[in-house]
Amino acid sequence: MKTRHVAIFVLLSLMVSLPSQAQRRNHDRQFDYSLMGGMNMSQIDGDNSGKYNKMGLHGAVNTSFPISQDKSWRFLVEIGFTQKGSYSSNIDRTIALSYVEVPLMINYNTANDRLRIGFGVAPAILAKSRVDDSGVEIASQSANYRRFDAIPICVDLRYKVVGGLAVEARYYNSMLSCAKESGSGTYRIFRSNKGQFNRLITVGLAYCL
Hints:
Helix content: 10-25%
Low-confidence stretches: 20-28
Order of helices and strands: HEEEEEEEEHEEEEEE
Strand order of the largest sheet: 1-2-3-5-6-10-11-14
Number of helices: 2
Mean pLDDT: 88
Shape: elongated
Structural class: mainly beta
Strand content: over 45%
Number of strands: 14
């Protein structure tokens, strides 16, 4: 199962990366390209935990193109793999959620192109879910997570350190519940929009072309 997910991710990554490289050659660097890898610090609002103490991996490939005459405003399309979830020390429960996500963001690049600020959404498809209590999987809870997290908002900050190497940080917050059912839960925007919501911070390195 894990091998299949990795294969799907690699294939989708190539589908994004190869066209972007061709477009860069044909359009005088109108399109840029970058790879990102890093760590997630995540939690799930509504699971009675409330701490960014679930660690996970994050990897992605993206391309962007200008949407303004001076090229400072750009639209970014990305595909990546990310591990979200939470850990509650009160009941020794670990929720591990793995997603394939497709962030869509509008970015602003400063004149020297060193600093980039972005905002958008990051729709995500659930590849795997697992809930463990004291190291033992609870199958009914593992199956309680939706296959699609449709509207996580995403805020991005990237700073080029030297050459094409950059440090990058992101903040994600789901606007719709990631759980099918929730005994307690919290809500977003409206009280009727109740359940469990992914929230995380990603920190990592990016290589930009």
